Amino acid sequence: MTGAPEAGSWAGAWTPTQYARNGAVEIAYDRLAGSEGEPLLLVMGLAVSRFWWPAGLAQAFAGQGFAVARYDQRDAGESTRMPDTGGSNPFAALARKRGADGCQSSDFKKVASLHEEC
User: Are 4 and 51 in contact (CB under 8 A)?
Assistant: First the structure.
């Protein structure tokens, strides 16, 4: 991926990609290496990979005492792709599930220490 936001000195700032499960869906995520404290989950917009979060912003959050994690929503980045919508509106399907993967995946809750208020 030429020109990817992860290129350069920040590429090693993140832990290797891991996967949490929400039913049949695999959610790709990573954490800012060395960040500790209150968990902070960065959620990118629809159809945009987690790799577009500026590492400097994540470092600033970590400097304020947050354990920073980011994930790819379904059908983005390295997470599970949605099946073909057959002419229906794919954004409607995504909107129904948006955020649910990060909150409902018990694997992800353990890793990110997410609270039940999610």
Answer: yes
